[in-house]
Amino acid sequence: MSKYGDWEPVIGLEIHAQLLTKSKMFSSDSTSFGGGDNENVSPVTLGLPGALPVVNKKAVELSVKVGLALNCKIRHFSVFARKNYFYPDLPKGYQISQYDEPLAEEGFVEIYVDGQIKKIGITRAHMEEDAGKSTHHGDFTLINLNRAGVPLLEIVSEPDIASPAEAAEYARTIRRILRYLEVCDGNLEEGSMRCDCNVSVRKKGTQQFGTKVELKNLNSFRFVEKALEYEIERQIMVIESGEKVIQETRLYDSAKNRTHSMRSKEEAHDYRYFPDPDLLPVQISENWIQEIKSSLPELPIYRARRFQEEFKIPEYDAFVLTQEKDIADYFEEVAEQSGNPKAASNWVMVELLREIKESKKEISNVKIQPKQLAQLIKMIDSKQISGKIAKTVFAEMWERGQDPQFIVKEKGLVQISDPSSIEKMVEEVLSSSPQQVKQYREGKKKVFGYFVGQVMKATKGQANPELVNKILKEKLGD
Ligand code: ADP
Ligand code: MG
What we know:
This protein has helices at about 45, 55-70, 165-180, 220-240, 285-295, 300-310, 315-320, 325-340, 340-360, 370-380, 385-400, 405-410, 420-430, 435-440, 445-460, 465-475; strands at about 5-20, 75, 75-80, 80-85, 95-100, 105-115, 115-130, 135, 140-145, 150-155, 195-205, 215-220, 250-255, 260-265, 275, 280-285. The chain is of the alpha+beta class. It folds into 3 domains: about 5-290, no CATH class; about 300-410, no CATH class; about 420-475, Orthogonal Bundle (Arc Repressor Mutant, subunit A). The strands form 4 sheets. It has a 9-stranded mixed beta sheet. It has a 3-stranded antiparallel beta sheet with strand order 5-4-15, with no helix packed on it. Strands 3-16 form a two-stranded antiparallel sheet. Helix 3 runs antiparallel to helix 4 and helix 8 (about 325-340) packs parallel to helix 10 (about 370-380). The longest helix is centred in the middle third of the chain and has 20 residues, at about 220-240.
């Protein structure tokens, strides 16, 4: 029996992505947050009488990009609508959004769960503007409208998601795509990507949906998963105790790992949506759509599949290496130039990603160029240096960004592959360790490792390990 007994969860996500434009959705105010409070606020942002909004073309272009990447139909005419509600951080008294004629709809995204690809339907993706930000200080509240009017794309999924883990993977996949497309930085902590989760439960095998609850305030993928876990259990308990789930919005409290009611859910008619009379419909030509389509990069899930096939690397490696576009680009170059994709994958996944993580660097600031890492791999493959020495060279490259050949020469790290000099060292080690030789001859084969270690020590790790092994065996009469 599964985790939830004879119940099953039904989940749909609404993701808000802040679009990476320089100016706001309907005004030339800057979207940068570096400045002081309420600096980026023109009459349009403030909703002053007579101020007129003008659509930001870049925001439309970025939205079309996402729509296409999510396999949506793009509307040639889409309409901005006013969503009316009152809140102090919304000076106009309405948010400009899209309602019944959104920019993009009826798409899907493929996510990778339990080793398989699953399709999640995308209901719609529509453009809207953000509200301002209120901060509460004891008995007063401050409002900063810098964020008001910043362009957002809201991506609404179908209720196709079947578990909390799947929801988190869906959200990660959307984030990866947004970052690949360079339309959103996907920073959950800073709120440039926000996930609201809708969840209900129903008896397994039934078709009808239960009453849904919307969860807000989920600023990490882990919290998406944990909040849903909690909420599903809560709903099952409510129903099993004979009560009814109330349709409402609940907030997740990560410190207590529980959800609590924020407000009862509004219905669409509460917002009195109507087309914004200040804005013309957005008209998008088929030509422009095709132009944007041809500029789309290869998306992560498909790139991973190609890496697996083309470079014969394991599925897991391909998945890790395609999480970020710049890492994938880096790896692909190393793989091609070194002619050894498996080694390239190991060096990028293990050494490079570890250093990047520890130093908190962006890959664009890494001193080692893909070409140089490829050279290092070639030097190992041609037995100029051992894998162990290569790690030392790599550390130097990381610090200084020089070519591996230069470092190897400078530090005198070239591998000793001359049999006669290795033979000499082997003889020295054996003659200075009579005790161990005796043990070995009496059958204690483990001592072999000791001899290898001694030879390597004598050569500062530079002796070709295969040769050392071979010559030691000969000398010991094996
Ligand atoms: P609302 O009108 O409350 O905004 P929508 O029908 O627009 O509701 O759906 C909002 C989100 O909730 C979508 O992501 C959708 O997939 C999801 N959803 C809708 N109904 C349910 C349900 N019964 N259980 C879980 N999720 C649902
Ligand atoms: Mg809705």
